[in-house]
Structure formats: C-alpha cells, structure tokens
Design brief:
181 residues; alpha/beta; Spore Coat Polysaccharide Biosynthesis Protein SpsA, Chain A; six-stranded mixed sheet; two-stranded antiparallel ribbon; 35% helix; binds zinc ion
Amino acid sequence: MNIVVPFTKLEPATEALARRHGAGFVDVSQDDEAYYRLLTRLWGMGESFLIVEHDIVPAEQVIAEMRDCSEPWCAAPFPQLLALKTADGQPVRRLQLALTWGLGLMRFNAALLRSHPDALERAGSLSRHWHDLDKTLLHVVLKGERHVPGPHLHYGECRHLRTEVDRFPLEPRLAAHHAVT
Ligand SMILES: [Zn+2]
C-alpha cells in the first residue's frame, strides 16, 4: 500500500510509524496549494494510496485493516478541535473536541480514483487552499454530490498529536483546557 505523509512540521512519532511502513514523505510547506498539487498528482497516478498527515499516529491495526479492506474509500476517525459557530456561521470563540474523519488519515483505492477521475479538478474549481480540501474534495465532491454515506470507517486507536488550537483566536486558558494529545 502506497503510504504518503504530507508535512509541514513532521511529528517524530508519525515519522517513525510511517518509516516502518516504507511511506513517502512530501513537504507541502512551499505554499497554500502544495497539498492540493500533491493530491492531484496521486490521483492522476491511479493507484491506491493512504494519506497519513504529519501529526496523526494510527495504531498498527488500523493500517493493517485499511491495507486489507476492499472498500473504495476508508478513514479512521481521530480527535479534532472544532470551532463552535452560531446558527448563522459566526464563531463563538469556543472549541468542541470531536471524533471526526478527514484527510488526516484516509485511504483512497484505485476504484474510487477511477470512478471520480475529475474529483481534484472539481474540488480545485472551488478552492485549492489546503485548509479547504476536506470540505471541497471530501464533502462537496466525493460525498455531497452523489449522496453517498461517506468513507468506510475503521475505529481503531488513532492519535492526533497536535490539535489546531492556534488556528483559532482563543484565550490560552481555554486552549489549555481543551488540549488533547
Ligand atoms: Zn475500509
């Protein structure tokens, strides 16, 4: 299984795990669209691949399950800090810790790439910014338009070493309260 680790700041535990599995490491720190270009390249190659982002550490069992799984699209949920918003989308400066799936740990198999050959092009027409990829590629293109139920989920342990607290304008006290490792 082709394992790819896109990184800007690679966590040692993620690196060690990925090296054990012969993963490829791709620096996507050049600009905000580098991650999009990487996915476009992988999609174009037409071979199954597993993305393990730079601060995600799945249990060995999760990797083994995904390697052996015949579903076209797989993910393992991991802890994520989500910014709470009001009903009309305004941030309320509070975070919620949730177990969610996303690009952080996701396997796309060759059948999915074949059935959605223009997925990256369509996602890119909405945005090519790394921050939007979960929404554009996963939710709008792969899930939303075809009303499919989303990826097949593997519920083994999957750690998320760094949360994304620094993306939100939080008071340090609140951020510390929500911090997870
Ligand atoms: Zn699966």
